[in-house]
């Protein structure tokens, strides 16, 4: 009889918990429907602009999700960490053969996976709407880069969320830090491009994003391991 890894059990529990949360239900169902309704209500001169290609449903949904998903991901993981600490949930892990930092990594991966899937589903819905309207977007290299950029924003936001979640003792403080500080931190990987230091270096920017994300989650896990629960 095989013994199941406590780490895998924790990660599965976090995934299931976040997937069933009301916030994720809104992201998976309500938000895409609202986005499509909003797009269909746009004036024809915007969606069918001649000579400019118009605004496609895919682009509209992608822009909306990039604006919302990062903030939602950071808030979800930060609020969850603070809430569980205040409810003394982490004291129960003392009796389990589990390292503290695994809790942080599990929450990061769970929120990242759930929000990423929600965004991909929304973008897919936009592609379907464009196809029905006879303006199906090309699934080319540029779209791949756009999707990867969106995933990078979600990853950075989740890492910022776990850092502020570990640092904060109240939900209000965590929310304020994310809204007024965290949103600026997520654009750090893009600064070299904005400043003209790394023009057209997309994959290098993605690498910087991945490294910063890993460093932030590692720092959060170290702080959480040393903190009093």
What descriptors fit this protein?
single chain, 229 residues, mainly alpha
Entry summary:
The chain is mainly α and 229 residues long. It is built from nine helices and no strands.
What do you see in this structure?
With 229 residues, the chain is mostly helical. It has one domain. The protein is built from 9 helices and no strands. The two termini are 34 Å apart. It has helices at 6-19, 22-40, 44-47, 57-86, 100-132, 141-167, 171-185, 191-194, 202-226. α2 packs parallel to α5 (100-132) and α5 packs antiparallel against α6. The mean pLDDT is 81.
Could you outline the blueprint of secondary structure elements for this entry?
Blueprint: H1 6-19, H2 22-40, H3 44-47, H4 57-86, H5 100-132, H6 141-167, H7 171-185, H8 191-194, H9 202-226
Helix pairs in contact: 1-5, 2-4, 2-5, 4-5, 4-6, 4-7, 5-6, 5-9, 6-7, 6-9
Helix count, DSSP H or I runs of 4 or more residues:
9
Low-confidence stretches: none
- Gross morphology is globular
Q: Kindly give the count of domains.
A: 1
Compute the average pLDDT.
Answer: 81
Please report which band the strand proportion falls in: under 5%, 5-15%, 15-25%, 25-35%, 35-45% or over 45%: under 5%
What is the CA-atom radius of gyration, in angstroms? 19 Å
The span between the termini is 34 Å
Order of helices and strands: HHHHHHHHH
Largest sheet: none
Helix percent band: over 70%
Number of strands: 0
* Structural class computed from helices and strand pairing: mainly alpha
């Amino acid at each position: 009889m095989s013994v199941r890894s406590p780490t895998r059990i924790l990660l599965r529990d976090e995934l299931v918990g976040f997937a069933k949360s009301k916030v994720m239900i809104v992201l998976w169902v309500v938000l895409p429907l609202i986005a499509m309704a909003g797009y269909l209500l746009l004036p024809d001169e915007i969606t069918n602009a001649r000579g400019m290609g118009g605004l496609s449903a895919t682009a509209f949904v992608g822009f909306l999700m990039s604006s919302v998903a990062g903030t939602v991901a950071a808030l979800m993981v930060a609020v969850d960490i603070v809430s569980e600490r205040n409810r003394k949930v982490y004291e129960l892990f003392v009796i389990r053969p589990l390292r503290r930092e695994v809790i942080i990594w599990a929450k990061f991966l769970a929120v990242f996976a759930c929000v990423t899937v929600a965004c991909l589903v929304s973008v897919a819905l936009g592609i379907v709407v464009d196809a029905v309207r006879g303006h199906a977007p090309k699934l080319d290299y540029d779209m791949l880069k756009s999707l990867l950029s969106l995933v990078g924003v979600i990853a950075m936001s989740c890492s910022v969320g776990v850092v502020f979640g570990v640092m904060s003792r109240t939900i209000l403080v965590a929310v304020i830090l994310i809204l007024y500080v965290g949103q600026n931190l997520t654009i750090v990987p893009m600064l070299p491009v904005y400043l003209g230091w790394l023009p057209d270096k997309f994959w290098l920017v993605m690498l910087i994003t991945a490294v910063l994300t890993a460093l932030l989650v590692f720092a959060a896990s170290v702080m959480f391991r040393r903190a009093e629960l």
